[in-house]
Design brief:
mainly alpha
Length: 629
């Protein structure tokens, strides 16, 4: 047995320290955020990922309804959905562990490139990065991508002499990263081209390319079988391009869930367009038309997003990063945020070292994400995965300032200051133009927790501050929903009719009013409102399901079944629709398919008491006693 060199032992000790530091920071941050409703009830994209994972467990997933961003993260969540009724704590803990492993891997890569000091600085930047800490407590694919990028970088620190095994590992990490979220696409393409010209012998590049394609091949096959083409593009790729670059956009994720989002996402259905590939083409065509009409505006939006990326802006797509900062001191560590690190990292690109080996891999990874942000929607989550690429570059600049020659110090410091001033100057006036509707989001979250008092207070504040028709309609609709669940449902109809008055084409408001009228037994009026909701949004799964309930109550079972199946075609992750379809089938004596429906409902929602009761009744062959829902 040979003793390990002192430097290697020291590096392993540094890696262990950084892993533990990252884990401790993650756990402490989780403790600071523990009272925040976002952690107990993830919404929007996070809820969709969890729902898709439960659909995979239930065996009811449909590739045509695959996750809107990328398939791999839902697969990552499958064990949690299968093993835990409340999977969020376990997901957060694993993501904290992945962040710790990422810090150790980045340290190792940066140490090989610039020495032990550079390695430790780079690992510390990853361990304490506020965006990474933020996303450790979110059910989103960011931390998985951070880890995959750390693996990729560590495997390619010296690409010219990369061993075959390292090329395979790097290729798998690159392919999985793209399948996890397509924002990695430009970085993956740039690194692939670099390796094509740098790896010797050249044929070894095929190992990387084949490994990169391996996780994408099954995705492509499933995509093609579903009629969506060979390119595994997610359902919202075209929509993100349009939101980020359309004529009515400021380049950021300015469209919020609610009325505006509903009108935008329903638009393709009015033209009979369904499926990921067709929807992507629809939004891409709209974007290109806008570009042709106003090319100067398109250039300005792209330039504005580039500057936002450089400045480390915290605009986010669905949640308020600043609200989390108020709860967690660790998220207020601005020294470790991108405001300073991005200029430091970019300044390092002026160094001769930046064009060698793994430094070039990190540089292209960072640049690729800049391209991705500039061409799509600007949001925090698209910036966070650059950290494994950014941290070594920033650490190299810091090391150069501390230990470099006088000329190197001046060059690095000057470039950093100039880039920092450019980012903070906001020459295009984009910062602050995308106010995050925290009141609306928090109102929805407190409603989902059953805290109707807090939900109402946030929504009333939104109504008072409303500056647009969308704000006013969303506040009124949400207040109507909250009132519906209060004893007696006082004021619910008034709020819902106000939402419809403000926005007559608001499908959700018509659906909610129809649901209220159903509860009162006013079936004819309820059906009219549900029909309006479906007319305004043919993809409104909840309205289709509710219409099925009305039809079944009238004895029109064949039509009811058709509407249940239409609803499930739009949203296969809705346990209530599976349960209702199971009830109808059980009453008709189709016990095998009814049991499959109840199993699907329970796999999607293990706490669904109606589905449990119906399954028990079915097994006792007491189908006549089955409830309606």
């Amino acid at each position: 047995m040979k003793a390990k060199p002192a430097g290697e032992r020291g590096g392993q000790r540094d890696g262990a320290i950084l892993f533990l530091a990252a884990a401790a920071a993650g756990l402490l941050n989780l403790r600071f955020l523990s009272g925040d409703p976002f952690l107990q009830h993830p919404i929007i994209d996070a809820a969709e990922y969890l729902a898709e994972a439960r659909a995979l467990v239930a065996g009811v997933a449909s590739w045509e309804r695959a996750p809107i961003h990328g398939p791999v993260y839902s697969l990552f969540l499958v064990p949690f959905a299968a093993l835990f009724r409340s999977p969020l704590p376990a997901i957060y803990l694993l993501q904290i562990a992945l962040a710790g492993a990422s810090a150790a891997l980045v340290r190792s890569a940066a140490a090989l490139l610039g020495g032990r000091r550079v390695g430790f600085i780079a690992g510390a930047l990853v361990a304490l990065a506020p965006p990474i800490l933020y996303f450790e407590a979110q059910v989103l694919p960011v931390i998985l991508q951070v880890f995959l990028h750390a693996v990729l970088l560590r495997a390619l620190v010296v690409p010219a002499r990369a061993a075959p095994r390292n090329l395979v590992i790097a290729g798998l990490a690159a392919g999985l990263s793209y399948a996890t979220h397509p924002g990695a696409g430009p970085s993956v393409v740039a690194i692939t081209l670099l390796l094509l010209f740098r790896v010797r012998p050249r044929r070894r590049w095929l190992l990387f390319a084949a490994a990169c394609a391996a996780p994408l091949l099954p995705v492509s096959i499933l995509n093609a079988r579903a009629g969506e083409g060979m390119l595994p593009a997610p359902g919202n790729a075209g929509l993100n391009l349009y939101i980020g670059n359309g004529a009515g956009s400021n380049g950021t994720a300015h469209v919020r869930p609610g009325y505006g989002w509903e009108r935008l996402t329903a638009a393709p259905l009015f033209e009979g367009i369904e499926g990921n590939a067709a929807r992507n083409r629809y939004y891409l065509d709209r974007m290109l038309r806008d570009w042709r009409r106003d090319p100067a505006g398109a250039v300005r939006r792209i330039a504005g997003k580039t500057v936002l990326f450089l400045s480390g802006s915290t605009i986010d797509a669905s949640q308020d990063f600043d609200a989390f900062r108020k709860r967690s001191p660790l998220l207020r560590l601005s020294l470790f945020d991108a405001v300073l690190l991005l200029p430091l990292g970019l300044a390092f690109l002026l160094s001769p070292r930046a064009r060698r080996g793994g430094w070039m891999v990190a540089s292209l990874g960072l640049a690729g994400y800049g391209v991705s942000v500039a061409l799509t929607v600007f949001a925090v989550r698209y910036r966070a995965p650059v950290w494994p690429f950014l941290a070594p570059l920033a650490a190299g600049s810091i090391d150069g300032i501390l230990r470099g020659t006088r000329a190197e110090r001046i060059r690095t410091a000057t470039a950093t200051v100039l880039l920092l001033l450019l980012g903070l100057a906001d020459p295009f006036g984009d910062r602050g133009r995308n106010p995050v509707r925290t009141d609306y989001n928090l109102g929805r979250l407190y409603y989902s927790r059953g805290d109707f008092g807090r939900a109402e207070s946030y929504l009333r504040r939104l109504a008072e501050r409303a500056v647009s028709r969308a704000d006013e309609a969303d506040a009124a609709n949400a207040l109507g929903v909250v009132a519906m669940d209060r004893p007696g449902g006082a004021d619910a109809e008034r709020w819902l009719r106000r939402a419809i008055q403000v926005a007559p084409d608001y499908a959700d408001a018509h659906y909610n009013l129809g649901l209220l009228l159903m509860r009162r037994g006013e079936g004819k009026e309820a059906a009219e409102e549900l029909d309006r909701a479906i007319l305004l949004d043919p993809g409104h799964a909840a309205a289709l399901y509710a219409k099925g309930i009305l039809l079944e109550g009238r004895g029109e079972t064949e039509e009811a079944e058709r509407f249940y199946r239409l609803s499930l075609r739009r949203d296969r992750t809705a346990p209530e629709a599976w349960n209702a379809l199971g009830v109808l089938l059980a009453r008709r004596g189709e016990r095998a398919e009814a049991e499959r429906c109840f199993r699907s409902a329970l796999a999607l929602d293990p706490r669904n008491e109606n589905a449990k009761r119906n399954m028990d009744m079915l097994r006792r062959a007491a189908t006549s006693a089955l409830p309606v829902r």
